[in-house]
Structure formats: C-alpha cells, structure tokens
Specification:
Layout: H1 2-18, H2 26-34, H3 41-49
Length: about 70
C-alpha cells in the first residue's frame, strides 16, 4: 500500500518539474552575453579547477603506470 502513494508522489513531483517554467530575466541575460570581460568569475573558477598530472603525489595512479 505504501508503494502506491510513493509512486504517485514521485509522479506528481516529476510532472511539476517537467512543466515548470520560471520567468526569464532577459535584461540580465543580455548583459551577461554582451559583456566580454577577460576576468570572468566563471572562467577563473574553471581555470583553477583544471588539474595537471604534476599535482598527483608520487606513486599515485593505476598499477603498471610508471613514469616513462
């Protein structure tokens, strides 16, 4: 009996999410797309999130992968 209620609730939530359409702020979107700043916060965070192989501690990695 509990599974029927749970499935019905999940269906209701899924339907609400599917047909939900928030109001779009076109002015903010236009400003974001028209700005061509090189010091963009998103770009800086992406740049800092990229790691290199040099960051890994010695001995870390897959077995058999030796520094060649």
């Amino acid at each position: 009996m509990g599974r029927g209620r749970q499935k019905a609730k999940q269906t209701k939530v899924a339907r609400e999410l599917k047909y939900f359409s928030p109001d779009t702020n076109y002015r903010a979107l236009e400003q974001e797309l028209s700005s061509r700043s090189r010091n963009d916060v998103v770009t800086d965070s992406r740049r800092s999130a990229v790691s290199t192989d040099d960051d890994d501690p010695p001995g870390w990695g897959w077995p058999g992968d030796d520094d060649r």
